[in-house]
TrEMBL record:
This is LIM zinc-binding domain-containing protein. GO terms for biological process: cell-cell adhesion; cell-cell junction organization; positive regulation of integrin-mediated signaling pathway; positive regulation of substrate adhesion-dependent cell spreading. GO terms for cellular component: cell-cell junction; cytoplasm; focal adhesion. InterPro entries: PINCH-1-4-like, Znf_LIM. GO terms for molecular function: metal ion binding. It comes from Prolemur simus.
């Protein structure tokens, strides 16, 4: 570098490794050890550095414990076959895809990693609970209802904002007339008594039970104490806000 140095003073400009015995590479006016030079070069090319040999990975990297590697540095823990970027990690070991699939471990549809805990089955795939999220706000559903559109999942709020009303019963976009009742939207054909499935309209008398409509006949079969409790809840709601639906008077 056109200068004289004490051996212990000539160090890598990035990691401070002593260079006297290991050599160096000149990089943009800096003296770097080879691993740091490779990392800088890879960063400029948009590629990864293998954490085992510290060379640039030209092909698809194998991600093991969140670090990139050349795939051929590893062998399948089951059959011993040299691995490719399709290898799967399970409990700290790497397996080729066929061996991993034989173990029956589900793969997350988002991160493509094995799912060892709770599994969400939705949209024809399996997901980590925290990875099954709304395509708009990216918040996990965590067991709450989701709405599908062109291969993507949405929470109710953003689905309605983007695509219109969704039927509370069939979970589909309402293309025709909308029945607005119990603070929800329903298809005309889906708005029915939740007990006997008799079709209802807003002209029919019904009560709300478990967030669903119940017709007059089914309501009359409820125990007296339950009817009193429902009527009390309805009075409390009426005191707080206007009520648009027709309710049965006992």
């Amino acid at each position: 570098m056109n200068n004289s140095w004490h051996p212990e003073c000539f160090r890598c400009d990035l990691c401070q490794e002593v260079l006297a015995d290991i050599g160096f590479v000149k990089n943009a006016g800096r003296h770097l050890c080879r691993p740091c030079h490779n990392r800088e070069k890879a960063r400029g090319l948009g590629k990864y550095i293998c954490q085992k040999c510290h060379a640039i990975i030209d092909e698809q990297p194998l991600i093991f414990k969140n670090d990139p590697y050349h795939p051929d540095h590893f062998n399948c823990a089951n059959c011993g076959k040299e691995l490719t970027a399709d290898a799967r990690e399970l409990k700290g070991e790497l397996y080729c895809l066929p061996c991993h699939d034989k173990m029956g471990v589900p793969i997350c549809g988002a991160c493509r990693r094995p799912i060892e805990g709770r599994v969400v089955n939705a949209m024809g795939k399996q997901w980590h609970v925290e990875h099954f999220v709304c395509a708009k706000c990216e918040k996990p559903f965590l067991g709450h209802r989701h709405y599908e559109r062109k291969g993507l999942a949405y929470c109710e709020t953003h689905y309605n904002q983007l695509f219109g009303d969704v039927c509370f019963h069939c979970n589909r976009v309402i293309e025709g007339d909308v029945v607005s009742a119990l603070n929800k939207a329903w298809c005309v054909n889906c708005f029915a008594c939740s007990t006997c499935n008799t079709k209802l309209t807003l002209k029919n008398k019904f009560v709300e039970f478990d967030m669903k409509p119940v017709c007059k006949k089914c309501y009359e079969k409820f125990p007296l104490e339950l009817k009193k409790r429902l009527k009390k809840l309805d009075i409390e709601k009426n005191n707080n806000q206007p009520r648009k639906t027709n309710l049965i008077q006992s």
